[in-house]
Design brief:
It contains 24 helices and 22 strands. The chain is an alpha+beta fold. A hairpin with a 3-residue loop joins strand 9 and strand 10. Helix 8 packs antiparallel against helix 15 (527-544). It is globular and about 90 Å long.
Amino acid sequence: MIVRPRIGRAALVIATWAAALLFVLGDVSSAWAQTTASDDPSPHSEATLVSEQTAVTPGEPFTVALRLEMEAGWHSYWKNPGASGEPTSIDWSLPEGYETGSIQWPYPHRIEFGSLISYGYSDEVFLLTDITPPDTLTPGTTVSLDGKARWLICEEICLPAHSEVELSLPVTEDAPEQTKWAEAFASARKKQPKAVTDWSVGAGRSDGEYQLLLQAPDGVRPDLDGAYFYASEKSVVDPGAPQPVTRDGGTYAIALQQSEYAQEPAGRLRGVLVAPEDETWDREGEVRAMQVDVPVDSTLSSQQLSGAMGAASSAGGGLSLPWALAFALVGGLLLNLMPCVFPVLSVKILGFAEEAGGEASAMRRHGLLFGAGVLVSMWILAGGLLALRAAGSQIGWGFQLQSPVFIALMTMLFFGIGLNLLGAFEVGTTLMNWGGRMQAAASGGGNVGAFLTGVLATVVATPCTAPFMGAALGVALTLSAAGALLIFTALGVGMAMPYVVLSTTPALLDRLPEPGAWMETLKQAFAFPMFATAVWLVWVFGRQTSNGGVAFLLAGLLLLGVAAWIVNRWSAPQLSRTALLVTRGLAGAALVGGIAIAVIGAGSTPVDEASAASADPSSDAETEWRSYSPETIESLRAKGRPVFVDFTAAWCLTCQVNKRRVLSTEAIQNAFDEKNVALVRADWTNRDPEITKALQSHGRSGVPVYVLYDGNGSEPTLLPEVLTEDMILSALENLPSSS
């Protein structure tokens, strides 16, 4: 079947899909064979399997490549073939115990055929695959790697091709040498896309067109005319449409036309952005292909998107990495002052005081273990956040407190710690491992207790976005995994620093009072901040669920109290073995039952706050705030009305303080009325993908965030995380008065 340019686009698409169908089925019909006048299974091309190393080591991954050699004028295809074609594939037939990775695709080039653009390779390409052998291989034997490669080879006609590929390698315990193909492997890796931490990347969509927005690092202003974006998925971006590049200072915008075959707009833009000739994305000049995977904000126009990118730059998205690290360090220090962190850290201070008469080395060890607990927890949170982001989840900082189940468990934990501090029960290793370890921390003993105090401090600190921290976290969630982990590490270092310094400086420790009877009083007093934290968590739980859910959670706390009473009333030294088993069994059953009831309550239906507010005559002030939606913002701005958006959450104490002390004051309400400002509240207490997207568009990943849109369509103003009346009044001064 010959397809010539004059046949036109429709005929070419039909012809290509016909070839693709034969490629997928893997059979060449007799009619096709007559057309090609050849029985060669791999016409105009040859496929071989080559290895980077000369031998296989048991259990050690190694890399092989499918080497495709193509005659001049012929080409094969990338993983997204563009307007037509099919990607190359390999069906592996490996011995038992082997694991294979996916094909590592080097960036392609454009293949023009009339008005159609396809993506592929010419001349020669190495498609790399990592293989992990089992660790049970016997040195001295030989392994055989077999597979069937399939590809589409095209010029003016397209022919399905396939080849049985195989490779035999000896097994050795020694480090294998590199083969003659090592340089070709290195060249293939250099052409693979890489994450670039210095550039901030965002995306938006308006009127059937995507905008890929890039913020250059400080002092870098490359010429990006000719840069090209290869979308990873078909039917997202039209490969035949031009991709013009515009620049405003250090911000670049690349226009991408949506594919006419798209069934719905894409939620994320994934692909490879290739720099023009003689340009690279890194300062070392080694990365020409940038890996792109960003959410698409469909709520803004093209002009607004460019402004949003600039706002993100000034508010955090365009911070250089050193500044972001500095902001994260300061934000971590300020986290220690947040009310959601103090109850846990007060327990650690108590432990320091109790150990003041102990060895300095033990104090240093405990302080460092506390810091290690903070850092490890930060890394775990960052890893989970980045993994979910990579999987497409719309989440942000403090995401674990958007789970009612997590809130219920944290409430029971803090309530149990409070009972423990009051002496309601003493546990070792048999009941409530978390509570027991926290008891060790409270009494100043145990390396595990010091470490777990740092863990718990981190878990409860995450809903508090301290000043300086929001911008740093906004940058972290736009960087590669390595860059993001650096920022989270700086955040953890800042949070742990005061306690590590205290534990490693004997002069400071000597100023602490001598241990004595007052310690028991102080220990019991610290129970009440724990109970206060539990009360706050119950309130958050109620905002996320319902009154019925709160009742279940309180019943769970009651059973936890019963378990503590049983353990205290029948202490272990006074009991026979049988009595000990019975009482501890009853306590364990009460504890498990309490947790189960609390988790059941977490599944109750949230209250419709809008309905509740309208039904409550006393809630007039609250009814002035509209619920957030992108359509609401668009509609209000289209009318030329100023809009103030409060991104908040019930579990964010900074948000609640700003709301009570600033936003609800008569002076601020009168100022809003005078300027006819529409008030919109974006409640992020429960997970809301639309609110998460809006936060990301402003370069933020957590709350609080305050955004003021004026009435003339210009770019929004982002206010600081900690508000004052003067800040808001100053921001409102330039708005026109209401007529």
